[in-house]
Design brief:
The model is unreliable at 1-5 and 205-211 (pLDDT under 50). By secondary structure, the protein is α+β, with helices and mostly antiparallel strands. A hairpin with a 3-residue loop joins strand 3 (45-52) and strand 4. Helix 5 packs parallel to helix 8. It contains eleven helices and eleven strands. Strands 1, 2, 3, 4, 5, 6, 7, 8 and 9 form a nine-stranded antiparallel β-sheet that branches. It has a two-stranded antiparallel sheet with strand order 10-11.
Length: 317
């Protein structure tokens, strides 16, 4: 019998018809300053709901009315509109939020928002999570800024939407303590960085001794904890290295990042389980999720590149 996981409980949920309550509740989340809100020509109401955890949450804000004021957030927040109108002003004039196009909000500083009857989606990402994943490619500092507010690249937008959808699916199917959810969170950040690169220095491949003991310790840690949720900061701490040194050492010695190396290890472990599994009693999808692979199409393609056959062919041996 297939066990159906219960729907995730809301992380936050409120609604009402009082403009004052909207300012109080929403303002507490978004650092409200001089907010005003009210009805247009119809009854006023608002709804705000979100699921996830303190590392990643997906939220929806609906307002039958208008809202104006300054806001600020320490999270990395990506918003887009399904309907209605919104603008964001970071001091260079108002930028319209285009329907269906994800737009990161400024991190750690005030900006002005104007909403008119929005049906808004928001993804809140913990700043430390974004910094950890970004460190795979960037020398990240405290000043986290994105190179552009909006991107019209349809492939990058589609990749973002797919990553968010898969993260919600992992949360529903496997729960907030699962490796699948942890890896899905990192995939959402990677999709964001493809859509909106950071204004930060890219890591470069250096030169040096690939036999460094600390690098060996990092590799051993990856193997020993491959089925655990981990961040690049965890690996660096276990090896006694800074994140930047770890990244550059891996690129120098292996030509890839620690997280790419971890993915290869997990692919190897997945293959071992498929080879030992009995057809009809286990499924490729179940084994893949156990090792943190949520996107079955992408997993199958990566598996085939790595082993020269698809996972279902391995299971049928």
């Amino acid at each position: 019998m297939t066990t159906v996981s219960p729907a995730p409980q809301p992380l936050v949920a409120f609604s009402g018809r009082d403009p004052g309550a909207a300012v109080d509740t929403l303002g507490g989340i978004y650092g409200a300053r001089d907010w005003t809100t009210g009805p247009a020509d119809t009854d006023y109401w608002f709804r705000y709901v979100g699921v996830g955890d303190d590392r990643l949450s997906v939220r929806r804000f609906q307002l039958n009315g208008w809202l104006r004021g300054d806001a600020a957030t320490d999270d990395v927040v990506v918003q887009w509109l399904e309907s209605g109108r919104s603008t964001v002003d970071v001091g260079r004039g108002r930028t319209p939020v285009r329907l269906g196009v994800p737009m990161p909000l400024p991190v750690g500083r005030h900006f002005r928002v104007e909403h008119d009857h929005p049906d808004q989606r928001l993804v809140h990402l913990d700043r430390a999570l974004v910094a950890d994943v970004a460190s795979e490619r960037y020398a990240v500092d405290d000043d986290m800024a994105f190179a552009s507010q909006q991107s019209s690249d349809p492939d990058a937008v589609a990749g973002w939407r797919t990553a968010v959808s898969l993260a919600l699916a992992a949360l529903r199917a496997d729960g907030p303590a699962s490796l699948a959810w942890h890896e899905a969170q990192a995939d959402v950040v990677r999709a964001l960085l493809r859509l909106h690169p950071l204004e930060a220095e890219r890591l470069r491949v250096g030169t040096g001794d690939a036999a460094d003991r600390r690098l060996t310790a990092a590799v051993e840690y990856l193997h020993a904890h491959a089925q655990d949720a981990m961040t690049v900061a965890d690996v660096a701490a276990a090896a006694g290295m800074s994140v930047r040194t770890l990244q550059e050492s891996f690129r120098r010695a292996h030509g890839r990042s620690p997280m790419s190396s971890l993915k290869s290890i997990r692919l190897e472990e997945t293959r071992a389980e498929l080879l030992s599994g009995e057809l009809g009693t286990v499924s490729v999808a179940e084994i893949a999720r156990t090792w943190g692979f949520n996107h079955m199409g992408r997993f199958s393609a990566e598996y085939a590149r790595h082993f020269g056959e698809y996972p279902h062919q391995t299971l049928r041996r």
